[in-house]
Fold:
Amino acid sequence: MNFASDNVYGVHPKILASLSEANAATSPSYGGDSFTARAEERLKEVFGCDLRAFLVTTGTAANGLSLSAITPGYGAIICNAEAHISVDECNSPEMFTGGAKIMGLQGTGGKITPAQVEKTLKGFIRGEHDPKPKGVSLTNATELGTVYSPAEVTAFSRLIRPRGMKLHMDGARFANAVAGLGVTPAELTWKAGVDVLSFGATKNGAMMLEAVIFFDLSLAEDFAYRRMRSGQLISKSRYLGAQMLAYLEGGLWLENARRANALAQKLAAGLTRTGTVRIPNPVEANEVFAVMPRSLYDRLLASGAMFYDWMPDSLGGAIGDHEIFTRFVLSFATPEDEVERFVQLVAAG
Ligand SMILES: Cc1ncc(COP(=O)(O)O)c(C=O)c1O
Structure:
C-alpha cells in the first residue's frame, strides 16, 4: 500500500512501448527528431491553439525555466507559501531567474486569491528598493489537492495583465486538474490568461517528461538558449518526444488522471466513513489530505502502509496535539484493492 507519491509508480506500458519504438532506428538529436516535432504538433491540437512547447526532464527545471522567461533577477513572482517553487526546489527558480524573489502568500487549501495578490502589489511602493512584480504562479492542481477553476484563473490574469505581469501555471498535476474540473485544457490555460504552463507528465505515467508550454509566443523567444544553458536540451531528445506522443495519444493523459482522481474520491469517502479521520480540504484531484490520531498513524505505518505526514501550517493551527496531518497520493497505477484494504485497516482501529 504505497500512497507516498504518484511518482512511486512506474511508467505506463503504452509509454514504454513508444520508447521502445523510438529505439528502433537512428534519429537526429538535440530536438531535431520527428518525435519531438510531432509532440509539439499534438500539443497544439490538445490545447487548440498555436503554442511553443519545449520538452524537459523534470518539473523543477520546467518551473525554473518558465519563470526565467517571465522575470529578470530583479523581479518578483507571487505564489502560495506552500508552492513547490517556493519551498521544494532548493532555490532553483531563484537560480534560473538570476535571483528573482519568490514571494509565498499564506492561503487556505493550497490556494491564493486575487485579493491577496492585489493587496501585496499595493506594498510595492518603493520603486527600485523593492523587486519589480513580474508574475503570479498558480499550482494546478495545488499542493493540497485542490484545483483552481477557469474562472478563478481568469480573475488572476485580469488583475495582473494590465500591470504588465505574466501568469505561470505549475501543472505538475495539470491532467488531474483538467480531469477533476471536467474542462478543456484550453479553458484552464490560455483562455483563462495563462501565459506559460509547466505541463507535467512524469507523475501521471511518463518516465521523465515535462513540457514548458508558451501560449504567449513572445516569451518563447530565446527560450531554446535558456534550455540549452540549463542542460535540459538532451541529445537523445527522441525519447522525450516519444513519451509525449504516447502520453497524449487517445487521451491517455486524461484517462490516467481520471483513474487516479477516482481512487482519491474512493479513499476520501472510505476514510470519512470510518469516523476516525478528518479531511479538511475538498478532494478535487488525486491527493487526499487527512488529519488522524497519532496512535492510528503509528499503527498504519507499522502495518507497512506508506504515506507522508505533511506540514500542519496549511491548516492554520486547526490540529490537536495528538493529531497528525497526512498526505495520500493516488496514481494511475495504484491498485484499487489497496485502497480498499487501507480503508479496512483504518476502520479496524
Ligand atoms: C506541484 C509540483 N511542481 C513541481 C514538482 C517538481 O517535479 P520534479 O520532481 O520532476 O522536479 C513537483 C514534484 O513533486 C510538484 O509536486
Observations:
- Residues 253-347 form a domain with the Aspartate Aminotransferase, domain 1 fold (CATH 3.90.1150.10).
- The pocket of pyridoxal-5'-phosphate is lined by residues 58-60, 63, 84, 139, 143, 170, 172, 202 (CB under 6 Å).
